[in-house]
Amino acid sequence: MEKRRNVLIVMLLVLAAVLPLPRLRAQSVAVSADVAQCAFLGTMNLELSWSVAQHWTLSAGARVNPWTFSRQDPQTSIQARQTSFSLGTRWWPWHAFSGWWVGIRAQYTPFFSTTGVWRPALATGSFVGGGLSFGYMYMLTRHLNIEAALGGVGGWMPSYTLYYSAFHPDVRDAGPRWFIAPELISVTLCYVF
Question: Considering the entire predicted model, what is its pTM?
């Protein structure tokens, strides 16, 4: 598992280094963080986007959540632990980093473990998938934008195990599995260089 994660990180770094980028100019690179994910059990995230044409941007992002939150009853702990990487593209009808957009992205999650958020069951595993999303970016200042987005994801979970709870070792469901689910509800702060 550790080797796969390291290989993916190296591949992403190589891709970013060799990807033919246009000459960087004003308003062509942005760094963003999804405050909705941060508020949801402390999921740390960062995305780098760059404009490759007036109507197109490419992006690469990562999410990490190492936290488990305990309640008074230890059997009802809450967690949305994950390590996740994504690559995507967006089409902007008006201009990159401003107004409406439609996007697609690929996502690789070598590890996830969730429990107690909506149900006591513990789900663990990994997945590879992709999704469609749409949103709107509003320019607050020359460099600071805020964005709202919705999207879904579908893909393949090569490793998936669902337990009755984190403290109940009996397996409810296991094995590889296909899925389609709403996945992206975001409110993002974006700094455009």
Answer: 0.80
Task: Measure the CA–CA gap between 127 and 7, rounded to whole angstroms.
Answer: 16
- Identify the H or E element spanning 58: strand 56-65
- Residue-wise pLDDT for 99-109, tens only, equals 999 999 999 99
Report the alpha-carbon distance of residue 65 to residue 45 in Å, rounded: 9
| CA 96 from centre of chain | 20
Are 49 and 28 a contacting pair, CB within 8 Å?
A: no
Single out the residue of 149, 146, 139 nearest to residue 88, CA to CA.
149
- Please report, in angstroms and rounded to a whole number, the separation of the first and last CA atoms in the chain: 36
Is the model's pLDDT at 62 over the cut of 80? Answer: yes
CA–CA separation, 47 vs 34, rounded Å? 9
Phi-psi region of 97 (alpha: psi -120 to 50; beta: other; left: phi over 0): left
H or E element that contains 35: helix 35-39
Residue 1: pLDDT band with limits 50, 70, 90: low
Encoded tokens for 96: 């990159």
pLDDT at 168 exceeding the cut of 80: no
Residue with tokens 């598992």: 1
